[in-house]
Amino acid sequence: MRHMKTGMLCLISVIALTACEKRENGEFSKTLKNVNVIDESNLNDIMLSVADPNEAVTYFQRATRENPDRLDLQRGLGKSLLRAKRATEASVILGKIVQHEEATNDDRIDYANALIREGKWKEAEKALDAVPPTFETFERYRLEAIIADTNKEWKKADSFYQTAVGLTTTPASVLNNWGYSKLSRGDYVEAERLFGEAITYDPSLFTAKNNMVLARGARKNYRLPIIQVSQTERAQLLHTMALTAIKQGDVEVGKDLLGQAIETHPQHFEAAIRSLRTLES
């Protein structure tokens, strides 16, 4: 009897120990899974922000194949395709996402962005119209401004640009777009001011510098603005100014500016040399 009791106690101990091990293993597995989810979330954020766009596309393509029902991975793929300038593919992915019951307003804005890059303006406008007016973000107003510009709704465009600028700490690209809008309307003074403001936020934004030269040249002001430029940039801006002068009939001024551009450039400036030769011949 005593042996029997001892055996039962041993059996109970083994069962209890096994139960503990299972519980501990289960808790460990759960903890490990949670850690993996955190790590994956961080990796997804990295892929969407600082990783090479094409590498990010490859990463999310593989992830969505392995987890086709994960909406967050589908979003990552759509955003990565946008970063990689593959708007057509992005619009297909994002178009499916906005049909999902868990789609967000950010998804609709990303979809509109992809459609704009495809040149599908009406569809993009419709996608933005699906976003309630109370949802106010920088990206939403940036896209609204671009669409209003395309529709030549200038007052709306200006209002949207103004709002977008106030919703970001890095408004250089929006100010440049707004300036180009003013340039296309013939408001050269205001365009130049906006390009100058864009440069104060991002001194490396060469597009704004080049546009500023176009705005000055359109008023036959053929002097470069006082802005921070490298030697190569200065030569390129002189070339832009020269072409602007020639286009407006000021050929001799243009030839002189081309000569300055060639002399300023630290290397062989083929485009300027070719333009000058064409004029002289």
UniProtKB/TrEMBL annotation:
SMART domains assigned: TPR (SM00028)
Protein keywords: TPR repeat
Renumbered ranges of TPR repeats: 172-205
Signal peptide residues on this chain, from the entry's feature table: none
InterPro entries attached to this UniProt entry: TPR-like_helical_dom_sf, TPR_rpt
One Pfam family hit: TPR_19
Name of the protein in question: Flp pilus assembly protein TadD
